[in-house]
Amino acid sequence: MAGRRAGLAHLRGSRLLSGHAPDALRSALAAEAHRLGFDGVGITAPVISPERAAAFERFIASGQYGDMDWLAREPSRRTDPRTLWSEVRSVIMLGVNYGPDEDPRTILTQRSGAAISVYARGDDYHDVIKKSLKTLARWLVANTGGDVKVFVDTAAVMEKPLAEAAGLGWQGKHTNLVSRGFGSWLFLGAIYTTLELPADAPERDHCGSCRACLDSCPTAAFPAPYTLDARRCISYLTIENKGPIPREFRKAMGNRIYGCDDCLAACPWNKFALEGREAKLAAREALRAPSLAKLAELDDAAFRALFTKSAIKRIGRDRFVRNVLIAIGNSGDAGLAPAAKRLTSDPSPLVRGAAAWALEQLLNRHAFAQAADAALAIEADDGVRAEWEAGC
Asked: Minimal CA–CA distance to 148: which of 26, 6, 8, 5?
């Protein structure tokens, strides 16, 4: 669940070149997109299918979006691209393969290390893709005229249904886009244009009877195929959720401190994902399997320095260290208890509460009772006090 940022880029062309046959324009567009690092390109009309619109409306009605209130605002704007921009006539959907060079689930057995979602191990994909999208949009304007708007996970755009309609892939049972060429590892971006462009054929569903993604979820976040309850999803809990991690999900988190790749990594179509992978999306070595002990030492300045240009930076230091402490509690490593103990006096109640839970998991009953007595003698926050009392 990456964060949303409002905004869009709007470019305007003043002329329309004559003599551009639709097929020639389509080929030239694809060639330029691939030159700029995009692995998939497709064109569709600015229409969300009734089936996808209805699924989104059911998702909102069920409340399964949790605290992501922006999804529930004016849902009609999401189910009809023309309400976002009435002049749009075609949507160009672009995909960038970010398939990892190793199975991201391997780190889950290294309990003193931190598991960070593949998409967040490098530079913020919003910035990486938007730069290329703007360049492609300028090329389109310069060569064909018209107006364009550029989106990367911004504004009220339903990227996955549009990508499906444009032939880039299909929405799998885990609700993410699946590509026959790149599996579940595609970043998506969109260019809205006033040009009437020939649409590509939509992709059909190739999931068949496979349940690998559904069965892999640690928190049973899929009540049914093609249906996600975000409130149970580790990506939501570690990124979008601003409060304490609910106790019922803490053990299942393991050492996942930012996002969760389990359902994506389980997809059999990933066998093709390494082909065409762009080096600019490679993971930073420091974020492949960082030490929980080191991450627990981060103050705000150190957090900002480590995650410069990273999507992780947007959740802030306190939420991040909260996640680290849950992983420390799940590590089974008593040697990490001093790191958790130090954070019981952190200025943030969110961090102090998570530290109390981590100590509950790592200390014996007598040692925890002593730590709880000392903390409760000075703790003023009701939520943090409840964490200590729950362990006694």
From this structure: 8
Least-confidence region, from 14-28, 300-314, 377-391: 14-28
Active-site residue, selected from the candidate residues 153, 229, 262, 346: 153
Q: How far apart are CA 325 and CA 338, in angstroms?
A: 12
Q: Higher model confidence: residue 70 or residue 328? A: 328
Has 101 been annotated as catalytic?
A: no
| Tens-digit pLDDT profile for residues 329-355 | 999 999 999 999 999 999 999 999 999
Averaged confidence pLDDT in the chain: 92
Cβ pair 354, 325 in contact under 8 A: yes
Residues with Cβ within 8 Å of residue 129, at least 6 apart in sequence: 94, 96, 152, 187, 189
If pLDDT is split at 50, 70 and 90, which confidence band does 101 have?
A: confident
Q: Is the alpha carbon torsion for 129, 135, 139, 145 positive or negative?
A: positive
pLDDT given at position 174 = 98
